[in-house]
Amino acid sequence: MDKLEIHGGIPLTGEIRIAGAKNSALPIMASTLLTKDTVKVSNLPHLYDITTMLELLGCMGVESIVGEKLGVEICSEPIKHFNAPYELVKTMRASILVLGPMLAHYGQAQVALPGGCAIGSRPVNLHLTALKKMGADIVVENGYIEAKINGRLKGAHIFMDLVTVTGTENVMMAASLADGVTIIENAAREPEVVDLARCLRAMGAEIKGEGSDTITINGVKRLHGCEYSVMPDRIETGTYLIAVAATRGKIKVKDTRPSILEAVLSKLEEAGAQIEIGEDWISLDMKGKRPQAVSLTTAPYPAFPTDMQAQFTALNAVAEGSGTITETVFENRFMHVHEMIRMGADMKVEGNTVMVNGKQSLKGAPVMATDLRASASLIIAGLVAESQTTVDRIYHIDRGYECIEEKLQLLGAKIKRLPS
Ligand code: UD1
């Protein structure tokens, strides 16, 4: 397994470009199952999860042509199987996103039931309850979700008990081809849900209210092909901003969208960063100062994102003062804390909160990545630590961060990949 070797203590400085959003690209790729026409998706990030989604579509018979400019043309017309196998679902939980479109368009889907993962149990009960309400016949047997429908799904009034991002996306896609109107209440308001709605609309879907907690979808009989460019990745953007703030540096991130990062930018300002924004760029300057510790609580958008919690924990580890970080979305998202303690961080987990007393610096150590965003936080910890840190199991990071060591090198970091 590859590792990353980091020599920390260098303030990061420079400019980088942000890739397309993974969490937007994945549902958009799944939505191509809703039409037999070709859908051209561009601004895809270069990530393992994107390759896994292409592999998943490919194993069902869907044809994809990967173009030069981070684009792919996907045509589901030759589809032969309606089965998302466990081998792929276990490497990427977002595979569940093929369930709604396959069921709505082809009347059947067998998708391996995703198991728990490092950050929590992550059930998909709300996806299934909603699709059942739309008339689907669903059984879970032998580790598989077996779903079918005679004719078309029926529009329904659905109240989501919890805000679920992929749950909202699955139902929105299924409802696009259902007979009648579907109303999703307590829908996720994440920008990636909005991006998917825009893509579906470009395919001919009738959707209103995306970005609010009530989404209304008037099902149509047929969707058609389209061209769609994926929005920028707000989590990648935030991760680089935090890495630079923690190392007391200066950065300009380009090809991003500041308007979807308000909660994160406001915490960075509280930490002492000077921030300027334009239409598609953000600059951050710490003026060489040590960051101030911040306190925050994660919650669904537009509140502070759980996918940025671990990175802020790393920033607090070397900040002035103390901060508390409370995680309300996933039940076990503090695995990175124990690794940071091995690097000399002063942190304590109590229930769903971690209390951090900032230290002047951390000490390099061998650490192990446990999930995608935890890996990013350990890299940040390595970048601020004295001496050498090696981050093991970095396959997690390659799932969600495009060319991370190259981008960090551009900012002056001493980081290299040690192939296994
Ligand atoms: C998505 C994101 C992930 C992010 C998360 C929360 C993608 C591909 N992934 O994951 O990066 O961290 O949103 O912003 O977009 N839940 C249930 N039953 C369900 C569905 C969810 O109990 O049927 C619970 C989950 O266990 C979790 C909470 O609801 O505690 C939110 O999860 P959800 O929004 O569904 O996360 P994902 O869509 O899997």
Features:
binds uridine-diphosphate-N-acetylglucosamine; 420 residues; single chain; alpha/beta; 24 strands; 4-stranded mixed beta sheet; 14 helices
Outline of the structure:
This protein is an alpha/beta fold. Helix content is 31%, strand content 25%. The chain starts with a strand and ends with a strand.
**Lateral arrangement of strands in the main beta sheet:** 22-23-1-24
* Residue fraction in strands: 15-25%
State the end-to-end distance: 5 Å
The geometry reads as elongated
Unreliable stretches (pLDDT < 50, length at least 5) are none
Helix run count: 14
Could you explain the architecture of this structure?
Strand 12 and strand 13 form a beta hairpin. The chain has helices at residues 22-31, 48-59, 86-89, 99-106, 125-133, 165-176, 191-202, 234-246, 262-270, 309-317, 335-342, 372-384, 395-400, 404-410, and strands at 3-7, 13-17, 38-42, 63-66, 72-75, 83-84, 108-112, 137-141, 144-148, 157-159, 181-185, 206-208, 214-218, 227-229, 250-254, 274-277, 281-285, 296-297, 322-326, 346-350, 353-357, 366-368, 388-392, 414-418. The strands form 6 sheets. A 4-stranded mixed β-sheet has the order 22-23-1-24, covered by helices on one side. Strands 2-15-17-16 form a 4-stranded mixed β-sheet, with helices on one face. Strands 4-5-3-14 form a 4-stranded mixed β-sheet, with helices on one face. The chain is α/β, with parallel strands linked by helices. Helix 10 (309-317) packs parallel to helix 12 (372-384). 52% of the residues are buried. It is built from 14 helices and 24 strands. Bound molecules: uridine-diphosphate-N-acetylglucosamine.
